[in-house]
Amino acid sequence: MMKKQYLIYADESHRKGKYFSNFYGGALVNYSELETINKKLNSKKEELGLFQEVKWIKVTEQYLGKYLELIDYFFDFIRNNEIKIRIMFRQNALVPQNLTKEQEEKEYFLLYYQFIKHAFGIDYCNPKEKDQVILKLYFDKLPDTKKKNREFKGYIYALNDFFCINNVHIYNEDIAEIDSKNHVILQCMDIILGAMNFKLNNMDKEKIPGSNRRGKRTIAKQKLYKNILRNIKTIYPNFNIGISTSSRGDFTNNWKDPYRHWCFKSRNSIFDSSLTKNSK
Questions:
Q1: pTM of the predicted model as reported, rounded to 2 decimal places
Q2: Looking at the domain assignment, is residue 277 inside a domain?
């Protein structure tokens, strides 16, 4: 029996936005290709003179050209399905009903759990269970107490009960917290995740206080977002960033697709049009 190993880098961006909240992002790579991809991306960063960590919050007019080139290069790996990207968020207008106090308090981790469980279509990664698959999970430093972080990682480990049906296994030692400064794939994913939050929450329209014009940084970020969207549309010409990406009648595409969005909707939610962008 062959053994395959996949690694998911995961992070969250924005818990509460004007129109969309709870942004989560992930990048999946074949572990056997990780070293090669890292070397290529780090070499590209050095070539561009980007010697520090790249992040969405660092985007400025001065560095825009470098970020544009890095993202174009990163999307080559996505188009070739060497890196799979998944973005999840929740639309504020879809209001959950009858949440318990515990659910409200654990919202961050409960949604993170759903993201890992479903966003990548892991349950479709091993057709006919012909291979043994090891799934590794690297989370950017979790923001809560050690106890709550440990509890969350315990729930992630318990996903073995869900994935093992398809011969996919998670080991405790493969669930880790990492520093994004040392992981270039996670850094590039952060830029995409930040761009989606930026656009979906209309941050591209924000004006300088007391004026009728936008700041240079806002304009630079809008240009970078548009470049990211252009890259996505080389894969899906009619891509809509604000809705869940269609599986096109085949649920295995949840795994096969190189790039997908998921607008999370709880089962007992109601739609409140007053919370949408079009409300007056």
A1: 0.95
A2: no
Name which residue leads in pLDDT, 46 or 272: 46
Asked if residues 132 and 169 have their Cβ atoms less than 8 Å apart, the reply is yes
Sign of CA dihedral 93, 22, 96, 246: positive
Of residues 49 and 272, more confidence is placed in 49
Residue 274: pLDDT band (50, 70, 90) is confident
Q: What is the DSSP code (8-state) at residue 243?
A: S
For residue 103, what are the CA distances in angstroms to 99, 152, 267? Answer: 6, 14, 14
Burial of 249 (0-12, 13-18, 19+ CB in 10 A): exposed
Instruction: Give 12-43 pLDDT, tens digit per residue.
Output: 987 899 999 999 999 999 999 999 999 999 99
Which neighbouring-strand residues pair with 27?
9, 85
In this structure, what CATH number is given to the domain that contains residue 122? 3.30.420.10
Residue 278 lies in a domain: no
Q: Report how far residue 44's alpha carbon sits from residue 68's, in angstroms, rounded to the nearest whole number.
A: 12
**Residue 274 structure tokens:** 């007053």
pLDDT at 105 over 90: no
Q: 189 vs 124, 144, 185, 195, 196, CA distance in Å?
A: 23, 22, 6, 10, 11
Spatial separation of the C-alpha atoms in residues 191 and 67, rounded to whole Å = 9
DSSP 60: -
279 within domain boundaries: no
- Total domain count, the chain: 1
Contact 270, 96 (CB under 8 A): no
Measured CA to CA in angstroms, residue 70 lies from 28, 29, 153, 224 at distances of: 18, 18, 32, 11
Mean pLDDT, the chain, whole residue set: 94
Which range marks the domain in which residue 54 is found? Answer: 3-272
